[in-house]
Amino acid sequence: MERIKMTKTAVWCRHKEDNIIGIGMNIPWYVPSDFKRFRRLTEDQAIVAGQTTYESFPNKTLPNRDIYILSFDENYKVTDPRRHFVLNDFKDVKKLKQDLFISGGASVYKLFMVNGKDLMPDIIVDCEYQGEVNQALVGDKVDITACVEIMKKDYHKISKEYFLDNIKTTVWAKNDAEVDEKAVKRVIDAIEFDN
């Protein structure tokens, strides 16, 4: 049986108290197992990220992934033109055929969450960091409170709560949507790898 549509999975890690995902250009905590889980979730997959998030990747790349970069800059240069692609119009995401992992930042999460049911993620990997935030960082706090509110209203939990290294992870699926069981299994297997 042929698949009818791509599965969109949002992956974020937010602070439990205030839904911040960053301070300035930095993640305000360091949890190596969270980076490893992200790698397992997205390896050999396609991800979509904003230009700022793309520039935060080591050497502007992540091995073994196609990366779609949302950018207003029509002349934006990528580090690997064979696997990295610039999208200047957010709605071009609809033209993509493969499954996508939505990887941030906050404005990208919001674009997917508020631009209609057909662009909303089918699955959300909601990681809540339970620890303290590095308050010494300089810059504005970046939060995804609007996205979390939509998640709590338009999604339901489809997994148990997983706890690892001060992060609680739960998988959510969009209400009234048919979610690809293989995609869900792949996500759960990646999360359960260390649990």
Description of the molecule:
By secondary structure, this protein is an alpha/beta fold. Helices cover 25% and strands 27% of the residues. The protein contains 5 helices and 11 strands, in the order ββαβαβββαββαβββα. The chain has helices at 32-42, 51-56, 106-114, 145-154, 181-192, and strands at residues 8-15, 20-23, 46-50, 66-70, 84-87, 100-102, 123-129, 141-143, 155-157, 162-164, 167-174. Strands 1, 3, 4, 5, 6, 7, 9, 10 and 11 form a 9-stranded mixed sheet that branches. A hairpin with a 2-residue loop joins strand 10 and strand 11 (167-174). The protein is globular and about 40 Å long. The model has no long low-confidence stretch (mean pLDDT 94).
